[in-house]
Amino acid sequence: MNDDAPSIRLDRLSKWYGDVLAVNEVSAEFGPGVTGLLGPNGAGKSTLLKVVTGMLYPSLGGVTVCGERPFDAPHVMRRVGLVPEQDPIYSGASAFEVTAYLTRLHGFSAAEAAARAQTTLERVGLAAAMDRPVRGYSKGMRQRAKLAQALAHDPDVLILDEPLNGMDPVARRDVVQLIHDLGAEGRCVLVSSHVLHEVESMTKRVLLMDHGRVIADGTIAEIRRDLSDRPLTIRVETSAPRELAGRIVLLEGVERVDVGPGLVVVMTKRPNDVFAGLAAWAVDDHVPIGGYGPTDESLEAVFRYLTT
User: Which domains does the chain have, with CATH numbers?
Assistant: First the structure.
């Protein structure tokens, strides 16, 4: 990857506070597109993001953003947009005033900053409320105001710490789509969340953290395939569940078969054999098989496997 490209690199990064080890030898690389930073509260996500954005120095290891260290480097931070965990501090000002002011700090003229603030606030769905004081906003509106402030200077790298907190379902849908679009535009987007389905709705590439360590890095499907010692659960729709279960139970690697009305649920360490058998039985033996597929390649299932 070009060092100047939108990117974040972590090299055995550690951060501790006294006897508390918040981030423990994390190495990872993020390029253009959306990556989910996932883990429970206390996993070290927010500390990691504060190091990436230059707010904290690492205790050990290194970090670069677009090829440069982010500490005391305004020219690097001009390429970065941050949605912090904390709410806006200028609560008496309007979202437009705050966004325009922060955009001016990136070197834009007053007119250009005002134009960018208006365009970005419209993009995040605050067109009708941009002139109202932020202190009167709901939690979800304040989150969207923070997103506008992060986007107005057109950054290459976006760091989003729990960006969907407090949003209603419609706002969540719109912001998830916006995050997709930002990644598709070639920006490096790192989204932190402890809510599994939120991350899964934004991206398939995830970095899972627990107790300061990375426990998995890759797409959800890749991580699940790497868990070769864990059986995969497959759900099969069929109008002949008992006949089908009798065939499946004879396959090597099958650990359990449950039969229900119109379905068979299989636990197996050799899912490809099951998938091949289903296809052959449906075509060659005309066994009535409807839809089928794994039930536990979701992010929630992967995280449960890795932390239990």
Answer: 8-220 (3.40.50.300), 227-307 (3.30.70.100)
CA dist list (Å): 201 to 180, 229, 290, 298: 9, 27, 26, 11
Low-confidence ranges of the chain (pLDDT < 70): 1-3, 88-89, 228, 297-298, 308
Q: At what angle do helices 139-151 and 95-104 cross, to 10 degrees?
A: 30
Q: Is 286 left (phi over 0), alpha (psi -120 to 50) or beta?
A: left
Q: Which residue do the tokens 């929630």 mark?
A: 300
Q: Residues of 206-245 as b/e, b for ≥16 C-beta within 10 angstroms? A: bbbbbebebbbbbebeebbeeeeeebbbbbbebeebeebb
Do residues 243 and 259 make contact, with C-beta atoms less than 8 angstroms apart? no
Q: Are strands 8-17 and 60-65 parallel, antiparallel or unpaired?
A: antiparallel
Cβ atoms < 10 Å from Cβ of 89 = 9
Cβ 3 vs Cβ 185: under 8 Å: no
Give the pLDDT confidence of 185-216 residue by residue, as tens digits. 999 999 998 777 778 888 889 999 989 999 88
- Residue 191's nearest CA partner among 170, 210, 165 is 165
Task: Tell me the pLDDT tens digit for each residue of 36-83.
Answer: 998 888 889 999 999 999 999 999 999 999 999 999 888 999 999 999
Structure tokens belonging to residue 37: 């930073």
Calpha distance 1→185 (Å, rounded):
17
- Closest of 49, 53, 4 to residue 23, by C-alpha: 49
φ and ψ of 205, to 5 deg: -95, 125
User: What is the strand order of the sheet 205-210 is part of?
Assistant: 80-83, 157-161, 188-193, 33-38, 205-210, 213-219
In the block, residue with structure tokens 């299989």: 266
Say if CB 160 and CB 150 are below 8 A apart.
yes
